[in-house]
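Q: What structure does this chain adopt?
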Amino acid sequence: QEVTINWQVRAMNEGLARITVTAKGDEASDAMAMSIPVLIHGSMQQHAQTAIVAQDDLDKTLTLELNLPDKIQPQQTELYVSFSPTLIGTMLDALPYLLDYPYGCTEQTVSRFVPAVQVRKTLQDMGLSLADIKKQFPAKMDGKPYRHPWNDSPIFDDVQMDKLIKDGLRRILSMQHSDGGWGWWKEGESKIYLTTHVLYALQSAQESGVDVEPNILRQAANWLQNAVNEDIQREHWEPNAQTAYAAYVLAKAGIKGDWIEKLHSGRDKLNLYGKALLALSLHQLEQKENAQTVLRNIMQYRKDNMETKLSWFDIPNGGGWWYWYNSDIETHAWILRAMTVITPKDEASPRLIKWLLNHRQNGYYWRSTRDTALCIDAMSSYVTTTGESDANYTLTLDVDNGKFTKVIKINKANLLTHDNTFVIKGVELPAGKHTMTVRKQGRGALYLSSRLSFFGMQEPIPAYGHELHLKRTYYHLKQIPFKVDVDNAKGQKITENRLRYERVELKDGDRVTSGEIIQVELNLDADNDYTFLAIEDFKPAGYEPIDVQSGYVFQEGFGTYRELRDQKTMFFIEHIAQGKHLLRYRLRAEVPGVFHALPARIFAMYVPRLDAGSGEQVMTITE
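A:
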């Protein structure tokens, strides 16, 4: 005979509760002890905000609301604000990767050479010395376990930097073929794309003050002109990104050919990469109205997220994602350059830059030498065109009407070396509503981000997210029996009993019966491409996973490593593309009761600002 006895107990504190049950009879007795983890009803939460102030806003005040719930653990609260007047630091961060890249084909030599030249020229125009910047960053040079990319770079030695640029130019020129063009290596045939790429690099270097022999440029332009003329005469030629790239570089060399009219009249066949280059070509040739028309066509594909201050372009997928002209990073870099040249005051440009920065897969550089070089090229053009390096303003950060204040003067002298953080921790920021005002007085851009993190114990705990969003949904898989007539092995008609599942969404407080199956769905929405993410989904007490083995799982075209733990299910994601994604797994209801399913959380393992959580849900199991 079995008897069920229920006790009602209240957990007074979090921790490990040890429970001992003893049964005593006249002739026998028994006892069992169990340790049960008691979790606090709460979770770490993070509210992020971003702001961009244009450099021409000479007196701009922003107000950011900072709301902390009534129930928090005060010691875990932190407000972290970072700000910058320029993108130059970002450009410096990427240089070590390019300079240290171990291979030396034509493309990679060019991709090391051009950004080094452009960054050096930008800093020289600002009156800054690389060596002086190094002296003002001792924390980045001390060999601590955390190593910034600047640690291992030769770029802070002006003499070494000059040598790298001279060596790069010498190597590029040594790889030129006798016909004036370039191929992948010194040997082999000259190619339109690689000759275009090198000629563009040499033009950029010349514009940045590097002495390039004019005859070298003429020979390259002549070969490219002849090659493009021959190419567009092919029977099946159609407007393409390669021809558009060559057209832009030839336009910079003062050469106009039939290819411009062919590209412009057939521009509907160009992808966004090619259209951006066509717009630049037309602008270079003083066909500014046509250039603006092409750029307006590109803008039809623009998407904006004003909450996160992001702008990007919906690039139609024409197949062949592995080709350079289908790279989303390179496409966005060329569009940024076109916007900078044709519409330099476009308010979407800073948001597009932020999108590019968020897509650095390795923290400080992009996917390859080529797209990293193109991003630096586009950003260098933006900094130079907009005069971002001429910042001269006073920034005032104020929380709660003077309770916490930071005032800093930003100008050329400290553009890269000022203290760019404002932090308030713990009990200094109690529960309740707070207000932070940000005032910029003077000329210059401002890129600001704030992150308010805290351990909240609201009832219920709400969802949150910024750039990443996570929604968790529970479904009851109701068994529906049905019959089907089939042939057995002997060809005889028989009737089989089968089951199918009807998927019914569970709302807060809905009931299921012990033994029934629940499907958990985690819907991820990423505003950008991200790497090295983790999801922790706290399972409600009373439920156990149906799968019992951890390991790699692949579903909905999306691969993750899944770990099944006592309190939660973990998913580890090496890479997630921009857009929506879905993960599923199943639980079985076992122990009757009413339980809180604490929020699921997704976070970047090496970038604290990327954090999102679902809301909680109350789950009920009946016998």
